[in-house]
Specification:
The complex is a heterodimer of chains A (368) and B (126). In chain A, 20% of the residues lie in helices and 32% in strands. In chain A, a hairpin with a 2-residue loop joins strand 10 and strand 11 (184-189). Chain A has helices at residues 13-18, 38-47, 67-74, 121-134, 156-160, 208-219, 229-238, 273-282, and strands at residues 22-26, 29-34, 50-53, 58-63, 87-93, 99-107, 112-116, 138-141, 146-152, 176-181, 184-189, 198-204, 225-226, 286-293, 304-306, 312-322, 327-335, 344-349, 352-359. Chain A contains 8 helices and 19 strands. In chain B, the strands form 2 sheets. In chain B, strands 1-2-3-9-8-5 form a 6-stranded antiparallel β-sheet. A 3-stranded antiparallel β-sheet of chain B has the order 4-6-7. Chain B is an alpha+beta fold and 126 residues long. Classes of the chains: A alpha+beta (368), B alpha+beta (126).
Chain lengths: 368, 126
């Protein structure tokens, strides 16, 4: 790892430093990993709300007459059938069905917008550019010109209602509209990576500081504070959401990850379709599952999962203490037949067995 | 950040307080702050031998598990048994109540850093 001087900064890094956040290298960006304490920050998002600097994320769009066809080759959802303003969760797959990244796709009037992972940005953009060109379209990387801020938690609507134009409360989950935050044109998206209600907003970079300050100022009476990436990771894990590099990687496929679980009804080809349909028919050899453990040891990526005959039956993907459940939780790929919720298995930490109990994902769903 | 002048340090962020032939070992304020929310610690037992430079236990935070590296060689004569239920002592008072083990020295301490050298090491890698 280089020194922090080599790392990229977001328009908000100065504010994180001034707030006393601990900053770390995250995909080449200097990002706040925590402010007060990870577990307190998790509780705050579950009970009040918090803001997240997501300016490191990759953001781009495909424009051109055949943009819908180009986007369709990239994702498994039926792009043409999406209404304007709709957002879907999907993935980029290779011919063999393995995942290159997981993504959000936004259907707008004259563009298809994507939010992609910071760590995969370069290779995603290269792949998307290749596909866009095949359809005579243009891929525009907007990562460095757009800011991205999330506000997540039950008090998100109260906080944002007076800062945004339009009927924020009427915006449906996984939908977006173009309006204004303060006087700044913005894409306002009812999405998030925490399992809570909330918004992700995109707007021109130079306004980032002013908007961040306005949200925190308006949110003060609602208990809103900035939240670091560590709490974000625990929040997403409780909500059963995948993190590329953990639940998904170059060797996983969307069937075993549980992203594709029913036959794909539309007829359009997309990268990886044939392999994914074959996996659907044959059934996966392993499945992504959650688990809880009474052990004080936190599950960590790469720990072996073993059964009571000491046979290797799986591998841990992620783990964290869960402030919401009050126990340690994790995700793992477990072989077919051993993966039923409720199954008692163990994780092996340096030769010591720590009992785990499989738990269907997600661990947490917000009350609605 | 100021680290106590009367202690010795390692590059892996342990501290040592030498009193006669007994060395008290802990982790530095910098290490405690970096680890932040601690959830688990695995320490050796009285009578175990520590070997300088080798792992003598593990400390786990919400986000990571780290080896504890022995700054000195010696036999463990006392273990801070209060820590198991009070891991926060390590964050709140790393050079006091947050001590980990005491060992009867069987080797030297010349290889350890003084406070100024450790401060510089932390600055360099911040």
């Amino acid at each position: 790892m280089g020194t922090t001087a080599d790392l990229r900064r977001t328009p908000l890094t100065d504010r994180h430093e001034a707030a006393g956040a601990r900053l770390v290298d995250f995909s080449g960006f200097l990002m706040p990993v925590q402010y007060d304490g990870i577990l307190d920050e998790v509780k705050r998002v579950r009970t009040q709300a918090g803001t997240f600097d997501l300016c490191h994320m990759g953001r781009c769009r495909i424009v051109g007459d055949r943009r819908v066809e180009a986007a369709q080759y990239l994702v498994h959802v039926h792009v043409e059938a999406l209404k304007q303003g709709a957002i879907r969760y999907s993935f980029f797959a290779r011919d063999d069905g393995t995942t290159m990244d997981d993504v959000l796709i936004y259907k707008d009037v004259d563009e298809i917008f994507f939010c992609i992972n910071a760590g995969n940005r370069a290779r995603d953009l290269a792949w998307m550019d290749e596909v866009a060109r095949r359809y005579g379209c243009t891929l525009e990387d907007q990562s460095d010109e757009l800011a991205m801020i999330a506000i997540q938690g039950p008090r998100s609507v109260d906080t944002m209602a007076h800062l945004c134009s339009g009927d924020l409360a009427a915006l449906k989950y996984y939908n977006f509209y173009r309006g204004k935050v303060l006087d700044v044109p913005a894409m306002i998206s009812r999405t998030g990576y925490t399992g809570e209600d909330g918004f992700e907003i995109y707007f021109e970079n130079s306004h980032a500081g002013r908007i961040w300050d306005a949200i925190l100022d308006k949110g003060r009476t609602h208990g809103v504070t900035p939240i670091g990436l560590a709490a974000r990771d625990t929040l997403r894990l409780e909500a059963g959401m995948a993190l590329y590099g953990h639940e998904l990687d170059d060797t996983t496929n969307p069937v075993e990850a549980g992203i594709v679980f029913a036959p794909i009804k539309h007829k359009h080809d997309f990268s990886g379709r044939a392999a994914i349909e074959r996996m659907l028919v044959e059934g996966p050899q392993r499945r992504l599952t959650g688990f809880t453990t009474e052990s004080k040891r936190v599950p960590r990526q790469g720990y072996d999962v073993v059964d009571f005959d000491h046979a290797l039956v799986g591998t841990v993907c992620s783990g964290s203490p869960s402030p919401t459940l009050g126990t340690n939780i994790g995700t793992a790929y477990v072989i077919d037949g051993k993966d039923a919720p409720g199954t008692h298995l163990a994780m092996d930490i340096k030769g010591t067995r720590h009992e785990i109990k499989l738990h269907a994902l997600p661990f947490y769903m917000r009350p609605r | 950040m100021s680290n106590p002048k009367d202690l010795k340090y390692t590059e892996s962020h342990e501290w040592v307080r030498v009193q006669g032939d007994v060395a008290t070992i802990g982790i530095t304020a910098h290490a405690a702050e970096s680890l932040s929310d601690l959830v688990f610690i695995d320490l050796p037992s009285v009578g175990d031998d520590l070997s300088a430079g080798e792992s003598f236990g593990e400390i786990e935070s919400v986000k990571a598990v780290s080896d504890l590296n022995a700054p000195v060689s010696g036999e463990v004569v006392e273990v801070n048994g209060d820590l198991e239920d009070n891991l926060k002592d390590i964050n709140d008072d790393p050079y006091g109540k947050g001590w980990l083990v005491k060992v009867k020295l069987s080797g030297g301490t010349d290889h350890l850093l003084d406070a100024a050298a450790y401060d510089a090491h932390v600055q360099e890698h911040a």
